[in-house]
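Saturday, quiet lab. Running sequence design on the structure tokens for the scaffold JK sent over.
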């Protein structure tokens, strides 16, 4: 038996360990579990024949003792649970592709209106003048990738052509530049939204930030040309308040005031990029997530409607970039936007996630 299990383990990418709820936890289950714990591959524990939902918790409880993070009760009679199990299994294949591509290379797109100072910033980040800077708006026509290795981390900065407001797109070059900015956002991990501090926030800036948010990218809002902004000791707070107001849908965005010309605070960008990269690739263990969830619910109970209360059975993280959490609930309709916001805040309090959006997916699981 051991030989067969070993061979199956060797050949697999993800292991689904199936136990039978009707038999209870057997010695054989324990033996296999101890073999599997030594294996460095994702393991999904499938508790089969969980046909009675009312007794589910009592019936499945003992299997948690095996110490696996991903536990999926499944019933072939009720045809339930299999979809979630498969989602989990496929998430490992997606994650694997992501990790191979991205673990050692952070891609950062610098996007903003023409003349905001994007190319100047790339030069400063590099410590040399590699891309062309000019007073003439629209100098950079094609996205240019520049690689930098710093402290063993590879950064690819994507310098883009200035982005105009979508609504005023008229000539072909402008349309072209908009879509190329979108492509740059698609292939990056983090977007630096560059605002020309001497001109203030424009509609174009808002539309870029919106795109980055929709696509779940890390976001840094860099207010540039801070050297020529007329300022006193309140200006920075006033500007920050305006940004928070304009970009209220992304309170997680990092904000930094820089000068790409003098280099002021440009190095801080590397710190912010590294932190965001850590946050957007963070994987939180299911057990810890559920502790935070239970605690959040105990402080502020779930919403109810017409006498029926929302129940959240548990939460598990299914993806990174952005960190994505699946909440298993009794009835999706009972969830309020404001309650999701509350949970998001609690997760942020517990785990940080500065600079990155996080995503919640609701899944219904019938009680009986
Ligand atoms: N005072 C000041 N000038 C800056 C700063 N950053 C850039 N500039 C100037 O702004 C002008 C435009 O800079 P670029 O770096 O070419 O701007 P860009 O965003 O790449 O522009 P496009 O490629 O045309 O979209 C140049 O004259 C720069 O010297 C800054 O922090 N302070
Ligand atoms: Mg440029």
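Result came back. Writing it out in full:
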């Amino acid at each position: 038996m051991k030989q067969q299990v070993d061979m199956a383990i060797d050949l697999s990418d993800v292991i689904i360990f199936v136990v039978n709820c009707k038999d209870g936890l057997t010695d054989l289950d324990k033996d296999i579990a101890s073999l599997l714990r030594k294996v460095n591959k994702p393991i999904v524990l499938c508790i089969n024949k969980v046909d009675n939902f009312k007794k589910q918790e009592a019936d499945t409880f003992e299997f948690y003792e095996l110490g696996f993070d991903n536990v999926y009760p499944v019933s072939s009679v009720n045809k339930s649970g299999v979809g979630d199990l498969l989602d989990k299994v496929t998430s490992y294949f997606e994650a694997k592709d992501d990790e191979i591509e991205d673990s050692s290379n952070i891609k950062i797109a610098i996007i903003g209106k023409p003349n905001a100072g994007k190319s100047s910033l790339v030069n400063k980040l590099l410590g040399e003048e590699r891309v062309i800077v000019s007073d003439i708006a629209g100098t950079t026509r094609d996205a240019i990738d520049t690689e930098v290795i710093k402290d063993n981390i590879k950064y690819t900065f994507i310098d883009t052509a200035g982005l105009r407001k979508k609504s005023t797109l008229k000539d072909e070059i402008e349309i072209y530049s908009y879509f190329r900015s979108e492509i740059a956002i698609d292939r990056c991990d983090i977007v630096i939204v560059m605002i020309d501090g001497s001109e203030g926030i424009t509609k174009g800036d808002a539309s870029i930030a919106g795109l980055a948010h929709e696509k779940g990218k890390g976001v840094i809002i860099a207010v540039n040309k801070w050297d020529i902004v007329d300022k006193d000791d309140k200006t920075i707070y006033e500007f920050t308040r305006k940004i928070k107001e304009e970009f209220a849908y992304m309170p997680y965005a990092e904000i930094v005031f820089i000068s790409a010309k003098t280099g002021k605070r440009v190095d801080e960008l590397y710190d912010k990029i590294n932190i965001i990269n850590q946050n957007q690739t963070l994987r939180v263990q299911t057990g810890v997530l559920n502790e935070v969830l239970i605690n959040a619910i105990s402080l502020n109970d779930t919403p109810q409607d017409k006498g029926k209360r929302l129940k959240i059975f548990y939460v598990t993280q299914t993806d990174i970039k952005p960190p994505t959490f699946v909440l298993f609930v009794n009835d999706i309709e009972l969830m309020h936007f404001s309650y999701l916001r509350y949970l998001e805040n609690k997760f942020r309090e517990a785990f940080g996630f500065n600079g990155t959006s996080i995503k919640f997916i609701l899944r219904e699981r019938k009680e009986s």
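Notes for JK: The radius of gyration is 25 Å. The chain has a mean pLDDT of 87. Ask whether to fix the surface positions before the next round.
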